[in-house]
Specification:
Blueprint: H1 7-22, E1 25-30, H2 38-59, E2 63-71, E3 74-81, H3 93-104, E4 108-114, E5 118-124
Parallel strand pairs: 1-2
Antiparallel strand pairs: 2-3, 3-5, 4-5
Helix pairs in contact: 1-2, 2-3
Length: 125
Amino acid sequence: MRGKRSLAPAIEDYLTEWSERTGITVEVWAMPKERVTGPVADAVYAVVLEALNNVERHSGAHTLSLALTTGRGGLRLTVSDNGIGFPPGRTGRGMDTMKRRFSEVGGTLTINSVVGEGTTVSGQI
């Protein structure tokens, strides 16, 4: 995502293409009105793409919800799906990479999943 493009339009464009390609409905709950660029935008964009890749490949979800907000507390990202979920304690390369990307820009990322109910990725920078 490097360049002058702001985060919200880049994510919105990708979500449109991804939803059309996968057939998974996307609900966007919030997007920042402020421009988000630079290393933070790159990290968030990479995490969103990895989360969507995981939803597409592993979840069996019909719906994905995304909220991205900015405010006094910083930037917050939530990506949730209504897929099959996975057991606690499970990790993988993609999940580790997402956590590392947020950590590199001073953020934290958690991944919570409930078998039979779906997965939520939550991050704050």
